[in-house]
Write a structure and sequence with these properties.
The structure is a homotetramer of 369-residue chains. By secondary structure, the first copy, chain A, is α/β, with parallel strands linked by helices. Helix content of chain A is 26%, strand content 27%. Chain A folds into two domains: 2-173 and 337-368, Quinone Oxidoreductase, Chain A, domain 1 (Alpha-Beta Complex), CATH 3.90.180.10; 180-313, Rossmann fold. Chain A contains eleven helices and 19 strands. In chain A, strands 3, 5, 6, 9, 10, 18 and 19 form a seven-stranded mixed sheet that branches. In chain A, strands 13-12-11-14-15-17 form a six-stranded parallel sheet, sandwiched between helices. Chains in contact: A-B, A-C, A-D, B-C, B-D, C-D. Chain B binds chain D through residues 185, 188-193, 212-217, 324-329, 331-332, 334, and chain D through 185, 188-193, 212-217, 324-329, 331-332, 334. Strand 16 (296-298) of chain A pairs antiparallel with strand 16 (296-298) of chain B, so a sheet runs across the interface.
């Protein structure tokens, strides 16, 4: 861990001699090696070969996401979905060091962030602008080798070119920022009251995006003081501690007893979901991103039907609209994302990094190969 | 009861000498007289006076709706909402016989159907085109005197002028048809696979509206053979008996394993709701109108989030867009609603009418004063 | 039909004692007195009586709009539309001093801004949420007495209640701000490149609103240095002098040769309209508010069809969605409108005020009774 | 950058034995051979080889489109755009006879219709669901070899699989039908008054699609009796001869003086465009597909701004939403397209076919190799 709350960052990306470097045969990688909890640092994992339409990325940084914890803990979901061994990590920024001959969307030397969903381009969803629910999606670090390693190969379309000077701590969280942007941008936000339930990293970024889009006010709930403090830093007009405060009553007070226009559900906690819907005004919109632990008792009558509410399931990013929106917002300078990246570790210290993430006392955590 | 499955109808409305008639002081009315089950035929209920902006309607027909049963049975909802005594009935067609001096939207002699939601025109919802969730809504036959009577008074804007020659059995169900139109027209239907869960009258009309709008195919589920037969008559391409058939498997088969694009939930039955969502494709749209008996176990992850589904609560009618749409569809002649009105009773035989409705072996039931 | 059943109502309300001051019988008013250029200060114009559903406003300030110039100059449009004598002025803020007995949406003492379009509430447009194109619209200061006077009467729904502490120079321009909000909010703005052609007051406010909504960048064109300087002050990222610079080339440069996503046309100048469309990217959206002097040569093929562009005519304000949006944005504090009000005159000095407005060297000009 | 890491691929696929017949080396093709009017039947044109991701189609039928006339006549547009020699024809149906090894979306033996726009999949438009304005579009029979020939090669994604039993005269016009569907489906049609200006093939099909989608009524204008008769056959409720009748007055009469809700402009004739806008109601939607001969005098004030109209440029088909919609409508059996294909010629008689098309006394004309 290099810093607790990092202030200074590497100022600018210098063009590296990557293209001249010999690409090695072996590399270091953090690997889900066995059908059991934990991860393994492998020193001699093969550097991936690229196939048709693919590119090879030398990783500059990765960041840890909630999904990575499921893999780490080897929970039910992980046991059903995963087929070790594979390299973990899907939030990745790095440099293009090799491209297949048929690739022209990026070139060697480009500084890129990776879209983690490898989509098929052929199914109904891909063919109608809804690639985020592609029925053949393969996710980096889940269904194929990820990027907590020295190198990763991806289809060229998954390598999103950044400006050369983009700070690394922004580039590495761009994929995760995309989840927040997808959720926020799915309905009108300008001049609207917005409630964000759940201040994990995506919730925190959603607060910031909603403010940038001219929300009337953004309220945020969580049960962690640490998270609520971060929510304030990210721009929430009022943070509400759901463990001790009456969320619905406070929101009613703050909104002239109308309720919020928009609910951005980022927690997956049934209690928060119910509070969110109770705080939502008639005709409001709820964008749901947080995954509940499972089915739970829900009141469709009061939450949805009587109020004429619109509910939208949010998964992944709109490909590639969300990335273009991220570019626009970052270029405009209206996002204030620096506080969200709270820690940085060398990749080989991944155990400490995961422990910190598990502690709940962090924002995004960067890993540097 | 005049006919089982009526074929012939009064061919055309003859202009009556209503304007010359003396409006009596007393009238017959079906009244919720006490805080107890049942209804009472009152022979000398006062004919309502009209206030500013109101009109007086001489009722030609009413029809029975599910809400009327709650009132009849004096269930929980009824006990909390209602304040007897009041005249019941909110699906009404009749003739304008008197107008307040400031009314110019209708005139004496007009043949009208009534919008049952009396909205305030002043709240946020009314002022932003969402009168159907007006926070001050007062419903005919629920919150103020209804129309199972000789006369009813309503605000002029609630009297929707019909062509003079519109058949009475169509005019009387126009309000209820509006529920179906609201649900169907809230998303693209043309060229889409549509599933209607629940073949009560609104579900049946929704089938017909979806077909008129060029659906790719409409499938309908219910657990009543009688209803399923009506669904077929209303145009369903395939009816599915949810009591004996595997709804989800059949829908998958019928849709090349894709699922339907649109779910129109009209049953309020948790099992049907869950089947409907299971049969809905990724990126699909669910319009929910049926009210469940209460909260129930629902899987937001699988039903909404992972699939990127849009869910919309449907209540009432869009005022007045839905009525204009009804006019357009009726005028175009693309709806085939005759089979939906299966019974007709004299209003004084209301007990037999309600019994028939309760039996489940009916479509819409008309009451004639 | 007059009836004993109607409670009789006074057609006009008597001056109530509830008002805090004595309302005089006569007042000062700026009047279009004759079918000729110019305006007249009348010292003894009758204070208006209020009718059913109306309120009386004591004017605190008015502001001048382009429409007022047409009336002043008695141009073609004016000669065909206007029927002198009448009080001019439609951008008005003031205090409610009297309400009809049936009014409860505002009360005596409320500080209000006026919506200038008096709509009928009965036509198709009013009944389907599109009151801004009500076919019976009567405009304050055009079709009925306006508010450059001590008092003005309006339907209660046209009196929009402000927070008591809202600065007068903001309240008075709120109606005009609504034009800008209507134009800006009619498409997605967040993360988009926006071009505003024409930096009159509405264009200037549109720049500010687009910035508040998180535009990627806002570019603005005009041929007046004064206006361009104001555009910069209102937040434009780049101002372009269309009299000396190559608008299209510059916009292309600023947008990586893509063009802007959104065109907000505020000038009505054919050359600016054509530049705007040329600078608009494929699939872009053009919201047109500025009125051209008349028909002109326009290339629908290149401007609209080949590029798959969406064009939207903008008139008035969405009633009342736009006013709610204005409330939200003002409350959020994301607008910076102070620079737009550049001058203030006593109402009796209206000639100087109009001259200043005509000079083009002003933003909004306030008149104080 | 060439690399040992790339598995080498053959740049061009060898004729496979998997095909059911021997694919010849030479074929007959209708070729734009020189920079001059006319076309040439070439007997020994090389059968195209397929590249990566491509398929070879044995043509069963082609149909003639307006674009083909520009090529035939060698007009201004043609002279600037085209680079002879190349095979013409872009409305094509046929059988897949060969696929590249990496293709799995279609297989040998599939009966397909061709999408004529070969899009890049990489540009902003392709990456945001707007492939129809792809900035690198290459059109079959315009920018690369078309299909008035025995064989044509296309990218696999351009081969849309039909049911094996689809009639050939439907399959061959499916691409052109897509233009009509794109235009019609771009706004709500159910329960709406629709005006189609221009009854060429796309206009005729638009009439039929609008009827299938439950329009309130569809009116159609043209100046050819032949076309108007076809319009009636395709389902128009009223056809209007613009050469002798007052289009605007008639439409007003037919719509209770409201005007139509939707204008589908298919003629490109300035007079028809102006009539269409004049007949469009306030708040209406105009979808423009017909290309005018050039810029012309247009009244943005009256046509667009004052009426709050939405105008949409329509080009090509939404890829691939439009094709899915076509599939849905065709499968539902709600389209009645048989009358639209009026002639069939052997491909070698192309001169007669073009003459017939030029005469204006035809619908779609099929060419059979």
């Amino acid at each position: 861990m290099l810093s607790h709350r990092m202030k200074s960052r590497a100022p600018e990306y210098k063009r590296q001699k990557a293209t001249l470097m010999t690409i090695p045969q072996k590399m270091k990688a953090i690997v889900k090696a066995e059908r059991a909890p934990g991860l393994t640092l492998v020193e001699d994992y093969p550097v991936p070969h690229i196939g048709h339409g693919e590119v090879l990325i030398r990783v500059r940084a990765g960041s840890i996401c909630g999904t990575d914890l499921h893999i780490y803990h080897w929970d039910d979901w992980a046991q059903h979905r995963l087929k070790p061994p594979f390299v973990v990590g899907h939030e990745i920024a790095g440099d293009v060091v090799q491209i297949a001959p048929d690739v022209d969307s990026v070139k060697v030397g480009d500084f890129v962030s990776l879209e983690s969903h490898v989509v098929c381009n052929h199914c109904y969803y891909c063919r109608t602008g809804r690639e985020y629910i592609c029925e053949n999606t393969r996710i980096l670090g889940v269904d194929r080798d990820g990027g907590f390693a020295d190198y990763i190969s991806v289809p060229a379309q998954n390598a999103w070119k950044n400006p050369a000077g983009m700070p690394l701590h922004i580039a590495v969280i761009e994929e995760n920022l995309g989840n927040a942007i997808h959720a926020v941008m799915s309905q009108d936000i300008s001049a609207k009251f917005v409630l964000v339930t759940g201040c994990g990293p995506v919730g925190l970024m959603a607060i910031n995006v909603a403010k940038a889009a001219g929300a009337r006010a953004v309220f945020a709930t969580d049960i962690s003081r640490y998270r609520l403090e971060m929510a304030r830093e990210m721009g929430a007009d009022r943070v509400i501690d759901a463990s001790s405060e009456d969320v619905v009553a406070i929101v009613r007070d703050l909104t002239y007893h109308e309720g919020v226009d928009v609910l951005l559900e980022m927690s997956g906690a049934p209690s928060a979901i119910n509070q969110g819907f109770a705080a939502l005004r008639g005709g409001g919109v709820a964008s749901l991103l947080g995954l509940a632990p499972g089915p739970f008792t829900f009141d469709l009558n009061d939450n949805v039907i009587f109020k004429g509410v619109l509910v939208r399931g949010i998964v992944g990013r709109r490909l590639w609209e969300t990335w273009y929106q991220a570019r626009g917002l970052l270029e405009a300078g209206v996002l204030k994302l620096d506080p969200i990246v709270t820690h940085e570790f060398a990749m080989r210290d991944f155990d400490k990094a995961y422990e910190t993430f598990i502690s709940g006392k962090s924002g995004k955590i960067m890993l540097i190969p």
